[in-house]
Write a structure and sequence with these properties.
Beta-Lactamase, single chain, binds adenosine-5'-diphosphate, 16 helices, 566 residues, alpha+beta
Length: 566
């Protein structure tokens, strides 16, 4: 349009120039033009100028329209909601597409709304609460803050607001760029919640917990029990200090083999470990702890921190030490007792032999020569001396179980049983007993004592037989493989031996008493014996680390069990 106006202007302006110096005016003559067109050249020139102005305005309009379109599309493609406010009234002048998506209102609705309707409404999330930021932003100081926004449905969500003053279209405006940070905020809240939960859990633990940096050995965190156990009032007394400084009162790291540092071990192995350590409280008191250490790794798998859970085992340790002391004491006093029993029984035999010998001599020489009463008294002395001699011999046998110990060796129990049965040959034959056995294992034992054990138990089965033919079975098997029926809760590794008979049986009431020294359930005239046999069996089994017991009912036979560990 303006190009055409310019051409016309140039063409017609030639009429007023007597000698036209430029094309196309050189072809025209103003006089001829006035005659031909009937208009003054000035009029035509004015019309041409108007035409040029009009054309230029149109060009400008296109330019303005294009830049406005560009601005809008940029405005609408922003990923944050944008509000343009009037600086003085705060009124919403314009919003972008993201704002309408975020808040659910149409641009028209928003323009007629007060910004207060787009927030939670209560202080500090209202205009009053935002006043400080708004004032600063209006004064040219951009503001960044978090805000609790509200959409058309009343849903509240967290936003981050960037408030700044800007000149738009030549006017001062307040620009609010709003970002939805609900997810970030929710994740943050969840993180804080789990941290709070963790703190509560750790603080309510009865064990001391500490988190330690493996590069510096410095304590990062401790729980309440830690402070209590080690005698501190506040975590600032320990956090930031090295673990060896706080719990060991030393300036350097614990060094194996005397002191294995659980932290160093966790870094070395990368796995969880449990160590016993001696720690010291704030005032230097000894604390025995069982330290359970778990490594914490970074993304590359390097151990960066460790968690120590320290269980105070001081009381247990004291009890253990006391028990150890008592065990040593008990062993010593048992040994003394055994020696005493041995010496006494050994030494008593000598004078007793004299008493017994002379009483028998007296009986032989003067029987029938004195009165009847004297014969009776002499026979009491002879019987008493014999009985006493039996008891002393029994005592001697019992004491020898402890005093004559041979080292434990792997021995085939089939041969042990064979030797025991050879020793019992006469009574087996006399009683007509039927003795059966399964294949017996090889175990770590004192062979002589094991022969005695078998002999005592099988001997009793023959001695305490019922009217029927004695029937005795001997079996054995590993406890963990259940190769023999295990009647009680017998657990662990080892071998279980079972000796079963069809004799007179035992009242369960006496099933423990019969293993005590000199305890018998019968008169001597019914069944001979001293009541030492089962006490010896118990001592032998216990010396091997096993246990012995009986299961029986009166008149229904007895089953003796004993275990040998290994
Ligand atoms: P003793 O046989 O000399 O009496 P023991 O210590 O061997 O001494 O046995 C203690 C008691 O246990 C016996 O008096 C007996 O009553 C009872 N006893 C032991 N073995 C058996 C058995 N196989 N059957 C029944 N009773 C038994």
């Amino acid at each position: 349009m303006s190009a055409l106006g310019f051409l016309l202007y140039a063409f017609f302006s030639g009429f007023i120039v007597p000698v036209a110096s430029f094309f196309p005016a050189t072809f025209l003559n103003s006089k001829v033009f006035a005659v031909a067109v009937g208009l003054q050249v000035q009029v035509v020139r004015m019309l041409c100028a108007l035409l040029i102005t009009f054309g230029m305005i149109k060009v400008l309009e296109i330019f303005v329209w294009e830049s406005a379109t560009n601005y809008r599309s940029i405005f609408d493609s922003a990923n944050d909601a944008i509000f343009i406010h009037d600086v003085s009234t705060g009124a919403i002048l314009d919003v972008n597409r993201k704002m309408t998506e975020m808040y659910g209102y149409t641009p028209e609705e928003v323009r007629s709304m007060n910004v207060a309707a787009l927030s939670q409404g209560a202080y500090p999330y209202n205009q009053e609460g935002a006043m400080e930021w708004i004032t600063k932003a209006v004064n040219g100081e951009p503001q960044l803050f978090e805000w609790f926004a509200k959409d058309y449905s009343g849903r509240l969500f967290w936003v981050e607001v960037n408030l700044k003053k800007a000149v738009l279209g030549g006017k001062d405006r307040l620009l609010a760029i709003v970002r939805d940070i609900s997810e970030r905020k929710t994740a943050g809240i969840a993180l804080r919640h789990s941290f709070d939960l963790l703190t509560v859990v750790i603080d309510s633990m009865n064990d001391a917990v500490s988190l330690i940096d493996v590069y510096t050995f410095r304590i990062v965190l401790v729980n309440r029990t830690f402070l209590k156990e080690y005698g501190y009032n506040h975590e600032s007394e320990v956090v930031g200090k090295t673990c060896h400084e706080v719990t060991h009162h030393r300036s350097e790291v614990c060094v194996p083999p005397d002191d294995i540092c659980p932290l160093v071990e966790a870094v070395r192995t990368g796995t969880h470990s449990v160590e016993e350590h001696v720690h010291y409280g704030k005032d230097g008191e000894r604390i025995y702890v069982e330290v359970s250490t778990s490594p914490i790794k970074d993304e590359e798998g390097n151990v960066v921190q460790v968690v120590h859970v320290q269980r105070n085992i001081t009381e247990r340790k004291i009890v253990e030490e006391k028990l150890k002391h008592y065990a040593v004491e008990l062993e010593r006093s048992n040994r003394e007792l055994e020696q005493f029993a041995h010496i006494v029984s050994h030494d008593l035999q000598e004078p007793l032999r004299g008493v017994s010998g002379f009483a028998q001599l007296l009986s032989r020489k003067y029987k029938g020569k004195l009165d009847q009463k004297a014969d009776e008294y002499i026979s009491f002395i002879v019987n008493g001396a014999t009985r006493m001699s039996d008891l002393i011999r029994a005592l001697l046998t019992y004491s020898r179980v402890g005093s004559r110990q041979r080292p434990l060796e792997p021995v085939d129990c089939n041969s042990v049983l064979k030797k025991a049965l050879e020793n019992l040959k006469v009574s087996i034959e006399e009683s007509g007993a039927l003795v059966e056995s399964g294949t017996l294992p090889t175990v770590l034992i004192d062979e002589v004592q094991m022969i005695q054990l078998f002999q005592n138990l099988i001997g009793n089965s023959i001695k305490y037989r019922s009217g029927e033919q004695p029937h005795i079975s001997i079996t054995a098997g590993r406890i963990d493989k259940a190769s023999v029926p295990v009647p009680q809760a017998v657990t662990g590794r080892g071998v279980l031996f079972v000796i079963k008979d069809n004799g007179i049986g035992i009242d369960p009431e006496y099933s423990e008493r019969i293993f005590q020294i000199f305890q018998r359930l019968h008169r001597r005239d019914e069944y001979p014996g001293t009541g030492i046999g089962l006490a010896v069996c118990k001592k032998i089994v216990e010396r091997h680390g096993g246990r012995i017991w009986v299961e029986s009912e009166k008149g229904k036979g007895a089953t003796f069990y004993f275990t040998i560990p290994g």
